[in-house]
Amino acid sequence: MNDMAIPSANERAEKLQGMGCKRKRVEDIRFTQGRGNYVDDVKLPGMLFGDFVRSPFAHARIKSIDTSRAKALPGVVAVLTAADLKPLNLHYMPTLAGDVQAVLADEKVLFQNQEVAFVIATDRYIAADAIELVQVEYDQLPVLVDPFKSMDPDAPLLREDIKDKMDGAHGPRKHYNHIFTWEVGDQTATDVAFENAEVTIKELITYHRVHPSPLETCQCLASFDKIKGELTVWGTFQAPHVVRTVVSLLSKIPEHKIHVIAPDIGGGFGNKVGVYPGYVCSIVASIVTGLPVKWVEDRVENLSSTSFARDYHMTTEIAATKDGRVTGLRVHVLADHGAFDACADPMKWPAGFFNIVTGSYDFPVAHCAVDGVYTNKASGGVAYRCSFRVTEAAYCIERAMDIMAQKLGMDPAEFRMRNFIKREQFPYHSALGWEYDSGDYHTAMQKVLDAVGYKQLREEQKAKQEAFRRGETRELMGIGVIHFTEIVGAGPSRNCDILGIAMFDSAEIRIHPTGSIIARLGTKSQGQGHETTYGQIIATELGIPSELITIEEGNTDTAPYGLGTYGSRSTPVSGAATAVAARKIKAKAQMIAAHLLEVHDDDLEWDIDRFRVKGNPERSKTMTEIAWAAYNSPPPGMEPGLEAVSYYDPPNMTYPFGAYICVCDVDVDTGEVKIRRFYALDDCGTRINPMIIEGQIHGGLTEAFGIAMGQEIAYDEDGNVLTASFQDYFIPTSVETPHWETDWTTTPSPHHPIGAKGVGESPNVGGVPCFSNAVNDAFKFLGSTHIQMPHDAWRIWTVAEKLGLHA
Ligand code: MCN
Ligand code: CUM
Question: Would 185 be classed as within a structural domain?
């Protein structure tokens, strides 16, 4: 080869558009032109439509269901009720949390808008008309809305189906409305720490009920081919392979005869992890009718019946010394799970990874207990950019650290700095059982404090407080400071499984003879940009330009088995599998190159996109040349082809972190909070695509803003859901959304092949406490310790009123 023909290293590296490049999102070419292919775009000949009859009551006995008028409507093909599903043993389905959930209400309903009957018609409008014709007679029962009353001796009995089952999926139940108690840490040592503490705080910190509300609702299309005995299901599934396995186990259809396809997904945010009655009913309806059956939720159904998030009531105590060292943490959580425990957690973790609640701080001892209870509300629990309850844990510890700093009379940033886990302590073993892989919290926090001019901000705040006291202004200034530690990337499979399915993940890479690539993964993008970023990992590992790499996900027939996308696990797990599979290919490529160059393998070195002979760099073979040879002239005795698959079981999770600061101004007369500045520094280890990371941060912060400042799934005392449309449920638009400033440090994960940690949920985990701390900080000098979220204008006005600021 002529060395004049070899472009410079820089030129070659740039051409790859590999890791670290702000490569534009390839999927956006179709999305921005309206050419995405979502479930509702899939249309099959003879397709029927299903729609649910739902309960108007939160708790009632079903006396009778009369479907005759609905069935008589022309175009109605069938109406399913629990009575039809019972003989198939499908009127209940297993939840991901070891409970069961009614597919169609059996004898009683347990929350408003619960599924009661499924109408199947030739047309979506006919189905909608027919549900009005199904007559259901109810006897109303006393409603249980307040989780603090769930375990009262005279509380209404909700789950008659399991009333005698006093041994739940996670140990003994204390009451008929109790689900589980989950405990971690050293209770005795923690009690001692509190007895000896110089200073303690205790506060009930509630993270209210919210909903992930992706723009595309949950939907599916089931098509059973009676001749072949094969079932194809298109659906909004964050974890398509899990759906296939579970459907096979429940339906007894052999797994190879089930094809699950998750096409483009219009946002998931955790809402599309769970299994919903709509999926089961469409599949049953297709098997019964022999025709394809589609089910598409509307907005009200999505907000009121599919998995909510949070609803954690966290009684939190910190023990500390007078000079501001934390000595113990004690948390008791009351978790409102609604009518069924349908939390999407790894099976052994009924409260997710809530035991990350010691956060970024070096607590010598801690104890945490969680009690899950039933109420007459929709089920669900873990969803919404949450990393399995890390959102709740981060909110809990970050509010509590502020409350303690206030009691100590210390600056909240300084108090955090004093208690951070130090860089040299990693890998760090937390009091509640985790091994944090890597971190450098002081550097991150200092960078943010310097960037925003923290000292000056505090001085300005002080001056404003004095001016407020003098009556010269009606505005209060708040500064929110937080530092979060995330835990993402489940497995390892020894700890983590879903319904017994171990949590690893996968990548398969195939290089074609001309040197272009198709790669398939076990994860499933819902907007995160996987088609762009996995290609970048492969480009850097294999020296083939990103534009020559197609990334495919979501078809269980072609993708290797994987557990899907949630808990920001794609990069930590499938990203690692991608690098490992690429390295397997590279090892074979090296042997081929050695053969072509007639040297020993060891005499070769990798150079961006080729192997070259050590000490003789003009002698080289590019990956493209090697690919051709792999098929057409492999070394004697070597199999042709150039491909590899990796099933990657991570040795540990990854622990991304970040330091955020929010500055706000509160108008005490209107209750309005203006976000003046929001500065977010994230560390997710090695960064694959800085632009996509920034997009993830912007999106997650916007959702955090929504949650902290107004979103709430609220119920009245009769269990009517009050916020089941976008008129009542706050979705920030560009008008309300603050300006975001982003920054980063890079602390690679030591156990991940490319050092990357997940990032998709970080901004929500850190964002919510940061907004809340800012609002709380504004009122602190007036003696307020903790204001519950959401911080919308009327609630803030009420706080000001109670503090006597309107006199
Ligand atoms: N990334 C990167 N470098 C890193 C880490 C991540 O460039 N060190 C990139 C990844 O390549 C990927 C994106 O950032 O393109 C997110 O990666 P990761 O953190 O691994 O998270 P997942 O891909 O597993 O996404 C899941 C996460 C979750 S759990 C929720 S909930 C959420 C989120 O992503 N839902 C989203 N972000 C979302 N973004 C959109 N647009 N839509 C959703 O539904
Ligand atoms: Cu918890 S929401 Mo995401 O894990 O799909």
Answer: no
Is 644 in the same domain as 693?
no
Q: Identify whether 610 is a catalytic site residue.
A: no
In a domain? residue 280: yes
Ligand 2 pocket, 359 CB below 6 A? no
Total count of domains within the chain: 3
Same-domain check for residues 529 and 467: no
Could you read off the pLDDT of 90-130 as tens digits, one per residue? Answer: 999 999 999 999 999 999 999 999 999 999 999 999 999 99
Mean pLDDT of 80-84: 98
Question: Which amino acid, one-letter code, is at 791?
Answer: H
Q: Which one of the ligands is nearest to 525 CA? A: 1
- Please identify which of the residues 17, 114, 219, 238 carries the catalytic annotation: 238
Q: Indicate if ligand 1 lies below 6 Å from the C-beta of 684.
A: yes
Whole-number Å distance, alpha carbon 287 to ligand 2 midpoint, is 31
Pair (660, 778) in one structural domain: yes
Same domain, 295 and 402: no
Say if ligand 2 is within 6 A of residue 610 CB: no
Do the beta carbons of residue 233 and residue 257 sit within 8 Å? no
220 included as an active-site residue? no
Supply the mean pLDDT for the chain.
Answer: 97
Does 167 reside within a domain? Answer: no
For 314-327, how does the pLDDT look when each residue is reduced to its tens digit (9 = 90+)?
A: 999 999 999 999 99
| Residue range(s) defining the domain that contains residue 657 | 308-490+653-802
Structure confidence by residue, pLDDT tens digits, 634-644: 999 999 999 99
Q: How far is the CA of 244 from the centre of ligand 1 (A)?
A: 23
19 CA to centre of ligand 1 in angstroms: 15
Let me know if residue 10 belongs to a domain.
yes
- 361 vs 187, 232, 445, 485, 737, CA distance in Å? 19, 49, 13, 9, 31
Contacts of 340 (CB under 8 A, 6+ apart): 95, 99, 100, 101, 102, 110, 159, 374, 379
In tens, the pLDDT along 163-204 reads 999 999 999 999 999 999 999 999 999 999 999 999 999 999
Same domain, yes or no: 451 and 594? no
Beta pairing, strands 366-373 & 326-336 = parallel
**What is the phi/psi pair of residue 273, to 5°?**
-90, -40
Q: What is the complex's ipTM, to 2 decimals? A: 0.99
* pLDDT-derived band at 5, boundaries 50, 70, 90: confident
Q: What does the pLDDT look like over 650-687, one tens digit per residue?
A: 999 999 999 999 999 999 999 999 999 999 999 999 99
Q: Using a 6 Å cutoff on CB, does residue 385 contact ligand 2? A: yes
**Domain edge (last residue) among 305, 328, 354:** 305
496 catalytically annotated: no
Give the pair of three-digit tokens for residue 425: 């302590």
Tell me how far apart the alpha carbons of residues 39 and 382 are, in angstroms, rounded to a whole number: 24
Task: Indicate whether 692 and 575 sit together in one domain.
Answer: no
CATH number of the domain bearing residue 82: 3.90.1170.50
User: How many whole angstroms separate alpha carbon 569 and alpha carbon 556?
Assistant: 19
Among residues 281, 343, 386, 396, the one annotated as catalytic is: 386
Q: Which of 599, 631, 648 is the last residue of a domain?
A: 648
